[in-house]
Amino acid sequence: MSGDVAGLRALTAEVVDCRRCPRLVSWREEVATVKRAAFADQEYWGRPAPGFGDPDARLLVLGLAPAAHGANRTGRIFTGDRSGDWLFAAMHRCGLANQPTSVSRDDGLELRGAYVTAAVRCAPPANKPLPSERDTCFPYLTRELRLLRNVDTILCLGGFAWEAALRLRAALGEPTPRPKPRFGHGAELIGERWALIGCYHPSQQNTFTGRLTVEMTDTVLLRARELAGLGAP
Question: Between β-strands 52-53 and 114-118, what pairing exists: parallel, antiparallel or unpaired?
């Protein structure tokens, strides 16, 4: 069964044009105008960042939201910041990406068996979306998973993504067990339709302090490959 390529393209177009959350629209556009000094000569994307990857993916990599000077600048999720550097280097080592770097939308990056997206599509102030903003964006995520027909494993980058994935599964007909499974690095929830696996977010706060190491990241990604039936890299 193939993913719905036309449906994903239509969803991407709708996401990119979204202006439903006034606070997020104001912030993302302010950042794109003021810019960071290091990127002063660049044209910022300044819009929501859609998901991207293999439409036939079996593994969905789910993050929190675009970074103000990362995806909000480049237009591709986890692209142009330290978190993306860490994530795609790991995905390359684990056979899920054709190259270890992601710097722009036209840099030749291709994902293999994986699709990367976020629970919230606009860069939020202080990297903290409001519950109302999370809920406004949620239908995009449910539609995305329906269009990615082969996905059966969700790698959750951080607790926010874990909670979003639990809500996502429930919205699509797979109830959350009680007591509710707690997020943790390497935590797993095996379901009838979708499995979840947790990974600490590859933020600088986690990677610079050693809370998340290269070995820890690779171990979780290889386990996610296994859960998704992708075999050895």
Answer: antiparallel
Measured CA to CA, the distance from residue 185 to residue 218 in angstroms comes to 12
pLDDT tens digit string along 103-145? 999 999 999 999 999 999 999 999 999 999 999 999 999 999 9
pLDDT, tens digit, 9 for 90 and up, residues 138-190: 999 999 999 999 999 999 999 999 999 999 999 999 989 999 999 999 999 99
- pTM equals 0.96
141 neighbors 168 (Cβ within 8 angstroms): yes
Give 104's DSSP letter.
Answer: S
> Can the peptide bond before residue 48 be classed as cis, meaning omega within 30 degrees of 0?
no
Amino acid at residue number 42: Q
Do 178 and 201 contact (CB within 8 A), yes or no? no
β partners of residue 116: 52, 61
Taking the C-alpha atoms of residue 4 and residue 155, their distance in angstroms, rounded to an integer, is 21
In angstroms, rounded to a whole number, what is the distance separating the alpha carbons of residues 17 and 72? Answer: 14
